[in-house]
Write a structure and sequence with these properties.
Length: 194
């Protein structure tokens, strides 16, 4: 079973190709503002390099945010379009979960994704269970949060281990393309205010 992994939530575009749980190829490219110029050619390249075409794919895996508004929207749109047109399942994972799972750890960990105005964040147990809710805090609010909760030493690096993330996603239920939505700052803030 072949799965295509798409992540465009940050400056680095990450595309992975799996045969069952084995990562058979990947592409990475740093692109501060040109994700739309690179993402589809990267997908095309990874498939052609492995003598495949889109019809050989069985599942689409996508990071649905939070992160760059345009980047998240682009990755999710490509993933939804592929899943819909190929009539194959799609699975989503948040960038916060992907970082937590990738890091591992025997202790609680804090994922922090910085943007110009603030920080997307989430606290996870050593078993990668979310503690509380996702949040978005201004830079000053985040610094205060770290100080008050004594969490500075729990911040983990923002690196994705594709193999760990894929294994985790095996246990997630697939959905249909129309139900996949990006997770933006405004959605996090709306959830916080409900």
């Amino acid at each position: 079973m072949k799965s295509l992994f798409i992540d465009t939530h940050d400056a680095e575009i990450l595309i992975g190709l799996f045969e069952d749980d084995e990562l058979i190829d990947q592409r990475q490219k740093v692109s501060s503002r040109n994700h739309s110029d690179y993402t589809m050619p990267m997908i095309d390249d990874i498939l052609k390099s492995n003598n495949l075409n889109v019809h050989d794919l069985n599942t689409i895996l996508v990071v649905n945010g939070p992160g760059s508004f345009t980047g998240v929207r682009l990755g999710v749109t490509i993933a939804k379009t592929l899943a819909y047109t190929l009539n194959i399942p799609i699975k989503t994972i948040t960038s916060l979960e992907a970082y937590a799972i990738s890091y591992g750890s025997s202790k609680e960990k804090l994922v922090a994704i910085h943007d110009v105005k603030g920080v997307f964040g989430a606290l996870f147990t050593s078993d990668d269970e979310l503690v509380g809710d996702f949040f978005y805090k201004s830079n000053d609010e985040f610094k205060k949060y770290l100080d008050e909760e004594h969490l500075e030493d729990k911040i983990i690096p923002n690196e994705i281990d594709l193999v760990k993330v894929k294994k985790y996603m095996n246990n997630l239920e697939p959905t249909i393309a129309h139900k996949v939505n990006p997770l933006y700052i405004k959605v996090i803030e709306a959830l916080k205010n409900d």
